[in-house]
Amino acid sequence: MGGSDQPPNGNPTIRAIAMPADTNPAGDIFGGWLMSQMDLAAGAVATYTSGGRSATIAVDGMIFHRPVKVGDEVSLYASLTKVGKTSMTIHVGAWRRPRETRASEKVTEANFVFVALDDAGKPVPVQGLPSTA
Question: Which end of the chain has fewer CB within 10 Å, C or N?
């Protein structure tokens, strides 16, 4: 992980505003809120990739580099990095932008592993990217 302190090119998978209800006792945004936003972004990529239901089975390498403050715009960039028989690995990077500035900084990143599921919740092969035709 690591890498540039500039957000990736293109549109984020999800954008959210950090609100006062999401703070921890120290007044920063609770890490669990940020992790749930990242899981939502990864889940969007997993659903698109599998063409159906999927579930998070692991999160690897999460490191909180910087705190998120109330009012920050949080942009989450998710990209598919690996597809297995039933699993998908999705890298998610989270960036904060204080609302009074134009500069963004990376706050955390992690790899989320999802498994494709059938309607009964049993693992199924990943079907690949849906057809655009």
Answer: C
Q: How many CB atoms within 10 Å of residue 71?
A: 14
For residue range 59-112, list pLDDT tens digits in order: 998 989 999 999 999 999 999 999 999 999 999 999 999 989 989 999 999 999
3-state secondary structure of 62: strand
Q: State how far the Cα of 75 lies from the Cα of 73, in Å rounded to an integer.
A: 6
8 A C-beta contact, residue 53 and residue 19 = no
Residue 89: both structure tokens together: 């690995």
Report the distance separating Cα 44 and Cα 11, nearest Å. 14
d(CA 120, CA 111): 26
Question: Minimal CA–CA distance to 27: which of 85, 74, 67, 56?
Answer: 67
Give the Cα-Cα-Cα angle 119, 41, 6 (nearest 5 degrees).
160
Residue 73, phi then psi, degrees to nearest 5: -85, 125
Task: State pLDDT tens for residues 11-41.
Answer: 999 999 999 999 988 889 999 999 999 999 9
CA atoms of 36 and 100, how far apart (whole Å): 25
